[in-house]
Amino acid sequence: MMTQSNLSTAVFIKSTYSSGGNNCVEVAAVPGITAFRDSKDITRGHVPMSASAFDVFVENLKADHPD
Questions:
Q1: Residue 22: its pLDDT value, please?
Q2: Could you report the per-residue pLDDT of 48-67, keeping only the tens digit for each?
């Protein structure tokens, strides 16, 4: 079951896809859950989702914004 407490000890790292400056996204993963947050304002919380849903989310972002 996915709960916020699963991420209480997770370490958020800056995404390698984040550009410099203030456009940073941080990602954390624990078994079965991936979450992301805005590194500029971590007090706003994070968005948790299943690892498989996060994979679909990222693939859709890539499709909408090809290199």
A1: 65
A2: 999 899 899 889 988 877 66
For 15, counting Cβ atoms within 10 Å of its Cβ (0-12 exposed, 13-18 middle, 19+ buried), the class is middle
The number of CA neighbours under 13 Å toward the Cβ of 47 is 9
**3 CB contacts (<8 Å, ≥6 apart)?**
none
Burial 27-59 (b: 16+ CB within 10 A, else e): bbbbeebbbbbbbeeeeeebebeeeeebeeeee
pLDDT average, residue stretch 3-13: 74
